[in-house]
Structures are given as C-alpha cells and as structure tokens.
Amino acid sequence: MRPSDYSAIPTPARCYVDFCILPLGTGNTSVAQEVAEVQKLLKASGVAHTMHSAGTTVEGSWDEVMKVIGQAHAVVHQTGCARVQSSMRAGTRTDKPQTAEEKVKRVEEILAKEEES
Amino acid sequence: MRPSDYSAIPTPARCYVDFCILPLGTGNTSVAQEVAEVQKLLKASGVAHTMHSAGTTVEGSWDEVMKVIGQAHAVVHQTGCARVQSSMRAGTRTDKPQTAEEKVKRVEEILAKEEES
Amino acid sequence: MRPSDYSAIPTPARCYVDFCILPLGTGNTSVAQEVAEVQKLLKASGVAHTMHSAGTTVEGSWDEVMKVIGQAHAVVHQTGCARVQSSMRAGTRTDKPQTAEEKVKRVEEILAKEEES
Amino acid sequence: MRPSDYSAIPTPARCYVDFCILPLGTGNTSVAQEVAEVQKLLKASGVAHTMHSAGTTVEGSWDEVMKVIGQAHAVVHQTGCARVQSSMRAGTRTDKPQTAEEKVKRVEEILAKEEES
C-alpha cells in the first residue's frame, strides 16, 4: 500500500472495549467518585456499557467507543486530577457479531453441558 | 537496601487481579472452550472469582492468585495451544480490605445519592 | 451536567497509548507478520511511535492515536484474521507535556543520582 | 480432571511479563520515584528485565517473575503509598523459547526484507 492508501482505512464498525480508569496524584486512595462521574458520562452518551468490579465494558463502533473513553479521561481531569491513566482491552471481529452478554452465556453453556454428562 | 534485603520483601497478603486469557494460533476464533477450562480450574482451586464478559476477577493472596493464573496458562496449553497471552489488572492496598463486590456497591451508592438530590 | 453537555466534552489534546495487538484464530503462533503490517501503517500515518518487545507506544492527540489503533485492527483483519484483540495503556495529563523519552530519562536520572551518593 | 488434579498443574517454566505499576492517592502526579524503586528491586532480583517508556518487561519462570512483580507492589507501598495498581501483559509458549529481543528483531527483519524488494 502507498502511504495515501493507509489514511483511507476505516476503523472497525463494531468493537467492545473493557476499560479501567485511574486518577493519579489525587491524595485519595478511593477512586469511586471519579468512577461515578464516568458512569454518568457513559449513561448520557447512550453507548451500551456494563460496569463490573474491575472496569466497564463498552460496545459500539470503534469511533464512538473511543470518543467516550477519551471523554472519560477529560471528565476525570475536570474533577481536578492532573494525570489520568487507563487500561483497556479491545476486541473486534469480522466473522460474526457477538454481544458481551452472549460471550458469557457461551462459556456457561459449555460448563453446564459438561456437568450434565 | 542491600541486594540481600530485597529477596526478603514479602508479596502482598491480599490482592485482586482481573485477567483475560487468550489462546494464539488455534485456527479457531472462539475462545469459549478455553475460557470454560479456566473456569473449571478456578472452581477447583477454591479462590474467590467472578467471570464477566471481558475477563475474570480473582481475589486472594498475591501468591495464590498468581499461581492459579499461571496454572490457567498451563491449562490452555494443555488444550493443544502453543502460545497463550493474558492481560491483567492487579490491585493491592494497605489502608483497608475491600472486596470486588464492595467496590461496585460504593460507586452505585454515590450514583444513587446524586440522583436523589 | 445535562446529557446534552456531555457530548460537547472534548477528548484529550495529547496522550500516549501503549498497545499490543494480537490476531486470534490464525493457526499460526507467530504474530510478527501482523505486527510488521501495523508498523507500516504507523509509519504511513505520521504519528510518533516506538516499538518495544511487548508493544508499541504511540503519541499524539487522543483522536489521531485512537484512529490509527482502530486502523491497526482493520489492517490485521485484512491479513485474513477474523478476530483481533488489543491491550492498551493510555495516559493523559494536564499539568505538563511529557514525551515517552522524557519519562524514561527521568527514572534514569533518579537512579544515577542515587548511585553517585 | 478431579479437583485434586488441578493443584498439581505446574505454572509455566518460562514467560515474559510486561508491566506498568502505578501508585494511587499519592498527591503527586510524578511516578518516576516509585518506578526508580522498582528498577532497583528488579536489578537486585537478578531477573532479566528491560524498561521502556510505558512499562518494564521481565523474563523468567512464571513463579520468579510474579514474585518480583508482587514485591514491586510491596516496594511501592513502602514508599508510603496505600494503593498500588498494575497492568500486565503475560505471554507463555510451548513451541519454542523466544527472548524479548528476538521478538523485536523478527519484526524488523520482515520490514527490512519488504523494503528491499
């Protein structure tokens, strides 16, 4: 490919990203307030999301998911925190659509079937 | 500290680790079978654990949690997979014990209180 | 904030993201060919980036960095891989700009100063 | 497998783990001092390691690598920090040994060969 061809490559139409966001330098070991602010942003954004104890999973197009996670950094900065770090796991697939819920169900089915036999 | 002093540093007595394990080179895009094998290992190990759509959170001492995640790599290799990769988030704190469940509850309380007011 | 206010929050003007991208279901344990394709994309994109043995660090605005990582997923899909997973660490700060190179230098200075004394 | 069989599964004899460690609640956005403490620990431990701008890659047996990363959490707690979080990428393979250095070299060879042709 020529360099000019690269800029035209589209980002994935669908992805899921699990992220955990951390404020640094706050003088407070609790991050619950910052996480709550991010949950309000996610709710307002309209993207599908599920919180668990080690992060939040967001589903949608690559661009909308990454926009809202970037905004999450901004929201945590707005609480007065000068440094924000996040850890993410992003998955994309072209073979079939699969929701976060279906992924868990699939594993549970395998386990249930083995217990039966 | 002298080098000899470092080897005596104890690993944390308590931690939580959220991990996502991936088999590489399997010729199969589904990872559900491998994840199910890991869930059986976790159940047999007796460590506290919760599966979600983007990983599993394990709680216990650093040594027991890391032993079982290392065994999880071994279990996936045993399914015939020559390369295994995992992504982890590990947290330790010395100020207070806090379970995975309490972390989620704390955020939900903040959100509920704000909605009331 | 009202929901309408959230959509106007800008993503960070500057960030660094370290990412590791993995093709799943390829039937091949080596990922070097896919990583090489991603390096060509990064070079063509013009964003600052440094490869190391466990990933690549990219620096720029949130939007341009996330666009190119999304394109990296697309490029790996184009090699014939139906499922792509990546792990990322993203950092943003509002107190001062700091390049990846400066971060390493800062740690090395502390270590050098302590060895002297 | 019976539960008793699981406890006998050995952890991997060889792995590489790339980790990034973060102190929370310090009231200071810089983490260079804590990272320098961890580098001293790694040096004293004798495990193979390489620092880059977004983390440090450690190589060795699963048990020795995870012991030293657990000790790294302890060392950061000793600096007075009550909460420590790390993000890790762990890789194991049974097909062939491969060092961190060889992984980078392999990608560079592919890129060099393509530029020639």
Automatic annotation (TrEMBL), chains A, B, C, D:
UniProt biased composition (Basic and acidic residues): 92-105
GO cellular component terms attached to this protein's record: cytosol
Family (UniProt): Belongs to the UPF0045 family.
Region (Disordered): 86-105
Coiled-coil positions: none
Protein name as annotated: Thiamine-binding protein domain-containing protein
Ranges of residues in domain Thiamine-binding protein: 17-108
SUPFAM superfamilies, per database record: MTH1187/YkoF-like
